[in-house]
């Protein structure tokens, strides 16, 4: 089961670290290619009003948009 979606683009260092944390904790993520430099959709701006990456949207609809907060969320309690 997919844990959630991670919006970002290949080569983003924050995303690379988040993917490592997710893998270490056995979380399956769907990566949605989102590159703010090329523009973002209005749908994405509903998730992150600043239009920055990375942004995480959980399968339950929970949204986080700061890399450290996302990494902490990926670590089981």
TrEMBL record:
Domain of life: Eukaryota
GO CC terms in record: cytoplasm; nucleus
A Pfam family of this chain: GST_N
Residue span(s) of domain GST N-terminal: 2-77
CDD domains, A to Z: GST_N_EF1Bgamma
Family stated for the protein in its record: Belongs to the GST superfamily.
PANTHER family membership: ELONGATION FACTOR 1-GAMMA
Protein name: GST N-terminal domain-containing protein
């Amino acid at each position: 089961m997919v844990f959630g979606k991670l919006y970002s683009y290949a080569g983003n260092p924050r995303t690379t670290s988040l993917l490592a944390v997710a893998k270490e904790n056995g979380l399956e993520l769907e990566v949605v290619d989102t590159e703010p430099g090329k523009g973002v959709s209005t749908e994405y701006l509903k998730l992150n009003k600043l239009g920055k990456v990375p942004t995480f949207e959980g399968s339950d609809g929970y949204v986080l948009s700061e890399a450290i907060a996302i990494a902490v969320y990926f670590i089981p309690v």
